[in-house]
Amino acid sequence: MLILLTNDDGVYAPGLRALNQALLHAGHEVFVAAPETEQSAVGHAITLVDPIRVRPLGPPAGLSGYAVDGTPADCVKLAVSELMPRPPELVVSGINQGANVGFNLFYSGTVSAATEAALMGLASLAFSYNSHRDQDFSQSAHIAARLVGLYPRLAPDPVVSLNVNLPAVDLAKIKGIRLARQSTARLGEKFLRRTDPRDRVYYWQAGETQSTDGGSDADYPLLNDGYVTITPVRHDLTHEDELRRLGTLTSLLNWPMD
Ligand code: MN
User: Fold this and answer.
1) Which DSSP symbol is given to 58?
2) Distance 214 CA to ligand 1 centre (A)
3) What spacing in Å lies between the alpha carbon of 129 and ligand 1's midpoint?
4) Spacing, Cα 94 to ligand 1 middle (Å)
5) Among 18, 41, 56, 87, fewest CB within 10 Å belongs to which?
6) pLDDT tens for residues 77-133?
């Protein structure tokens, strides 16, 4: 397969390098278009006001493609529209340093690269590793490459991205692979308040992912329990039940309004 590989941790991130190697090893053709600098938590942002500069990645980097001075969603749009010789058969984002679970998906650049691909009608997967510290991605990359190999048989609707989280435990301790719904896990509200060398106050986002969702079918509990989790996600935000309920109240929404 021709795979577009991107991420939000930037082109120098070890998770991207490890996944690139694993995908090449599995016999895929890998085209990298990844952010020049870290873009974690930029969500689905795109760059409109500034130019987007690109830098070819040479063989010394072990990567084939471009570093892009933009967001993860920029990378996907630009790669598919301008940089790639032909459209990719699959867009793969990751492997992110840190899990992407629960409501954190809305902030995630990693997941947004995959959902941007879905908006373009392209098959897509996002991979994240449940550690902010451990930088050995070899085992996770191996699992990710196996799941990429399975993708054509899983064949989800391309409007869906598969959001995969990988546990930070030894291969022998991984309990299995579980399909999971998005949990309600979210970053706790916490800021460090400090002063800079000129005595000006600044704040630093310091929340950790908290979960009150104990559901045995939910992404974060299953991930922390040692399972690889797969969540099919989409960007249709319409709440169908509310659409129907509000539909019974259309007499309040007459035009012209009283
Ligand atoms: Mn990241």
Assistant:
1) P
2) 25
3) 10
4) 8
5) 56
6) 999 999 999 999 999 999 999 999 999 999 999 999 999 999 999 999 999 999 999
